[in-house]
Amino acid sequence: MKPKVTMIAWNQNDNYVVTAVNNHLLKVWNSCTGQLLHDLVGHADEVFVLETHPFDSRIMLSAGHDGNIFIWDITKGTKTKHYFNMIEGQGHGAVFDCKFSPDGQHFACTDSHGHLLIFGFGCSRPYEKIPDQMFFHTDYRPLIRDSNNYVLDEQTQQAPHLMPPPFLVDVDGNPHPTKYQRLVPGRENCADEHLIPQLGYVATSDGEVVEQVIGQQTVDQDEQGLEPSILDGMIRQLQLQQDQRTGADQESASGGPQNGEGTPRRG
């Protein structure tokens, strides 16, 4: 197998460079001379996560598709801590990303099964206040492209970044109580009635019809004349204001209306 570098990271003071190779080894190099200092052995699959400690130049974190998370002392070439991400009944979960907290006392990882793993000092009691399963209701919603090749949410025909803050749901799409909905940025000060999502019936890929969060007014609902939600009205108003600002900016940049029209055409 031809060796290939899958990830590279400098340590905190740039004295060392660590490379992850597809033969599952981590190599520590002197960044000034290019001399190979250590081979770090422990991973059993490819590594795509290398994170340096925010202030301790000796410490480097690595994580890979084998489910292993290592804390290394790269000056000595030794393991400091090791964690294996075993999931009951499902084997191990590949670790896709890790980040240290700014104070270096904690780090968080995400895996292939949708889990957020938080490591650090102290008790885990504060984290017991939130549900085990938290997803956004928009996480697996299909996207489409319009005639300008811009991405739109298929159901609402809106740009994803202009949609209201999503609702928190469990793995089956059932919404969590309102106290959890306020954890979503943008919903902190919403009234209770604005934190109750709209529910609808959605057909899954295998033909089963399940009740899930719709969250926003759909095109079908508009055609049926159903009353829109307050959030949808706010989003439409924001979109209209943005369109007006864009039109005004284009008109002022061109010195007046284009092509004899009252408003300039959008690009």
UniProtKB/TrEMBL annotation:
Domain of life: Eukaryota
Renumbered residue ranges of the record's region Disordered: 239-267
Organism of provenance: Ciconia maguari
Keyword Repeat: yes
Ranges for the WD repeats: 1-39, 40-82
One Pfam family here: WD40
Swiss-Prot/TrEMBL keywords: Repeat, WD repeat
Protein's recorded name: BRWD1 protein
